[in-house]
Write a structure and sequence with these properties.
The complex is a heterodimer. Chain A is mainly alpha-helical. Helix content of chain A is 75%, strand content 0%. In chain A, helix 1 packs antiparallel against helix 2. The longest helix of chain A is centred in the first third of the chain and has 29 residues. Chain A is globular, with a radius of gyration of 17 Å. The termini of chain A are far apart. The mean pLDDT of chain A is 85. The model of chain B has no long low-confidence stretch (mean pLDDT 92). Chain B is globular and about 70 Å long. The chains are: A mainly alpha, B mainly alpha.
């Protein structure tokens, strides 16, 4: 099981980098959908024995992060009939290099951290790397929809860190966190839809009417 | 049991309003809104009279800090609801159900934040406050409010995501330490055994995360846009109640850090954010041309004062708690009055709004009085609380901090006075005729103004006791 968890964590990093390098919005959404699926597997692979807690957390994560949210975001693209390109402010190669740098930095930082007691030593560096890549997507992509994707990746990074603490965070709370993320992305999706209708573009850099 | 009802009742009614199609229109939702607001305040008042044991395994409990924020929220909510009655007659929103439902969802979220003694539960409530308010910011459904909603959602969500990471860091600090995980009293009791490196990281992330929601500089950028575009009564609720909830988040982690004996680490950080917020507010208030954006920067200023009081310690903690109450009440007052101006003239911009004393006498008088209250002039409550924070600065051996605060406060006074007096005095624009001000629209601000005035002259005994106990929990003292 430990090796399987390790493999899944490496795949998570790959899905991060894939989102950074993708040119099409729909592929980015597939990227985060597969990341959601991987995150749903982790509670089961990391648990020392199969418990209701781990199973329900995994199932909840898959439902929200791999099925509902990607479906909803895809729908938002279709309904709003947006152009399908990502339109980065930083080029794809440059973003991937930044992403690689983030991964290296994440490993360097987590070597210095006093580790939480966990079997899986890859968990913290992968979590930090995902977090930083989420920030990169959030800040270097023009499309409002990609900012939602960036926020989801950021949130996934935090979820991974949370997995080091599954014993101390009760299921009810995890459910609350998932629900909050779901509603948050849902509202963001609605706003994205309206932005496209009002401005005829999903380009968030056009939102510049309000200044001092 | 009362704690559960306080937290859940507004949500249940909100779901009812949102879910049952028979509740279309605005009469029934507003009636339910009023009933919920009254019931909530009655229950909260009963908490002052008779103590209530913790429920849900210690996750929900009343303590002086939480009770202060809960009461402030409940009072502001009731005032906002009375205002809503008059407001909706003049400017009906596109959906009365969404309007009432979101307001009640916010009340639930804010109550959960105030009562939560499990820090992850506090986070869940805090994120829910953000989300419940977002549809209200977008109520006018035009380009500008769309932009404001987007900025608010993205910046707040990222900020609050960092706070979640901070919460997990706190759980990491607690590994191998006795006590229930992330439950506040246990964290405080065993604070000295917490892992210091993780605790420091947790403090920083929680401060930045919840600080984003408070609107501390430099994470304040969403604030002027959001408060400027949201309907005034929503801005008032956000500036008065939502920021107080966010401050409570900061105060909770400060409580743990102070109990762990890390005051020398936390205090300079808090003071730094506080002074920076004052500076940013001072810079942007000068030359501001819109009343609601002006109030947003004033809110940045007061958030800065709140964390300054925490950072200075001693009587500063008491000053912060008193300032929390004063700021909440006075922001509600000012935004509701500004709402009256917008209803009458269609805009909160200084350009085109002159001579309001002639056309809107009551609101203009309240606006000018509010100028003096918000800038901390005697005899209003904010003078007392700001004075207490200044005393803490001098008392802790940092007279230069007191001097810097005074300088910024003076600049802010000049900037605010210029705009407010320009709007209130002078000759009205041609074509502006006196408007009849409905009692529903004036009663709320008058009540809040009376409360702020009273707090400047006399602080009721029970309130003083609760604030003093809250200050002690934050590592400070009562004056």
């Amino acid at each position: 099981m430990r090796n399987a968890a390790q493999l899944v964590l490496l795949l998570v990093v790959l899905s991060d980098l894939a989102v950074l390098g993708t040119t099409r919005l729909s592929s980015c959404i597939r990227g985060i959908a597969s990341q959601g699926l991987l995150l749903g597997l982790l509670p089961l692979l990391l648990a020392s024995q199969v418990s209701i807690h781990a199973v329900s957390l995994g199932v909840g994560t898959v439902i929200v992060k791999a099925i509902l949210l990607p479906w909803f975001l895809n729908r938002a693209i279709r309904e709003a009939a947006v152009r399908r390109e990502v339109e980065p402010m930083v080029g794809f190669i440059a973003s991937q290099l930044l992403g690689a740098l983030a991964v290296a930095l994440a490993f360097a930082i987590s070597l210095r951290l006093p580790m939480p007691a966990t079997e899986q030593r890859l968990l913290v560096p992968v979590s930090l790397a995902t977090l930083m890549i989420g920030f990169i997507v959030l800040t270097t992509r023009r499309k409002a929809l990609m900012q939602v994707v960036g926020y989801l990746i950021l949130e996934n990074g935090i979820y991974l860190f949370g997995l080091t603490q599954t014993e101390s965070v009760p299921f009810l709370i995890e459910l609350g966190v998932l629900l909050d993320v779901f509603v948050g992305v849902f509202i963001m999706g609605i706003v994205v839809f309206h932005i496209n209708r009002e401005f005829d573009s999903l380009d968030s850099t056009r939102l510049t009417e309000l200044t001092d | 049991m009362r704690l559960l009802v306080i937290s859940a009742l507004p949500l249940l009614v909100a779901l009812l309003v949102l879910g049952v199609p028979a509740f279309r229109g605005r009469r029934v939702p507003v009636a339910l809104l009023a009933a919920v607001a009254l019931a909530h305040l009655a229950l909260v008042t009963s908490l002052w009279l008779a103590p209530e044991p913790a429920t849900l395994g210690g996750w929900l409990a009343v303590d002086p800090l939480g009770l202060t924020v809960l009461t402030l929220t409940s009072v502001l909510f009731l005032v906002t609801v009375t205002y809503t009655v008059g407001y909706l007659r003049r400017e009906p929103p596109s959906s009365g159900r969404v309007f009432a439902g979101c307001l009640m969802a916010f009340l639930t979220a804010a109550s959960v934040v105030s009562l939560a003694h499990h820090l992850a539960m506090l986070w869940v409530g805090m994120e829910a406050t953000t989300l419940s308010v977002a549809p209200l910011v977008f109520l006018r459904r035009d380009r500008r409010s769309l932009e404001a909603t987007w900025k608010y959602l993205v910046i707040s969500s990222v900020g609050i995501a960092l706070a979640l990471l901070g919460t997990f860091f706190l759980a990491s600090a607690q590994v191998d330490v006795p006590g229930r995980p992330l439950v506040l009293p246990d964290l405080v009791e065993h604070a000295r055994d917490l892992h210091p490196a993780w605790l420091r990281a947790a403090f920083l992330f929680l401060l930045v995360g919840f600080g984003t929601k408070m609107g501390l500089a430099p994470m304040h950028t969403w604030k002027p846009d959001t408060y400027g575009e949201a309907p005034s009564l929503v801005s008032g609720l956000m500036a008065g109640a939502l920021t107080s909830c966010a401050f409570l988040g900061v105060a909770r982690v400060t409580q743990v850090v102070m109990a762990a004996g890390l005051a020398s680490f936390a205090q300079p950080v808090l003071i730094g954010f506080g002074l920076l917020s004052l500076a940013v507010a001072a810079v942007f208030i000068i030359g501001q041309s819109d009343m609601k954006r002006l109030l947003a920067y004033s809110s940045v200023e007061h958030m800065g004062l709140l964390v300054l009081g925490l950072g200075l310690g001693g009587v500063g903690a008491y000053g912060s708690m008193l300032h929390l109450v004063n700021n909440g009440l006075s922001k509600g007052w000012m935004f509701l009055v500004t709402g009256n101006i917008v209803l009458a003239t269609g805009s909160s911009a200084a350009a085109g709004n002159r001579g309001l004393v002639r056309t809107l006498p009551v609101s203009a008088a309240l606006l000018v009085l509010g100028l003096f209250a918000v800038t901390g002039s005697p005899p209003f409550g904010l003078f007392m609380s700001e004075f207490t924070i200044l005393r803490a600065a001098v008392g802790s051996g940092h007279p230069w901090i007191a001097a810097v605060i005074l300088l910024f406060l003076a600049i802010i006074f000049v900037g605010m006075a210029g705009l407010v007096l320009g709007m209130a005095l002078g000759e009205p624009e041609p074509g502006q005729v006196p408007v009849r001000e409905s009692a529903w629209l004036v009663a709320g601000p008058v009540a809040l103004a009376a409360a702020v005035l009273m707090l400047g002259v006399y602080i009721p005994g029970p309130l003083h006791e609760v604030l003093a106990r809250a200050a002690t929990a934050l590592g400070g003292t009562a004056p």
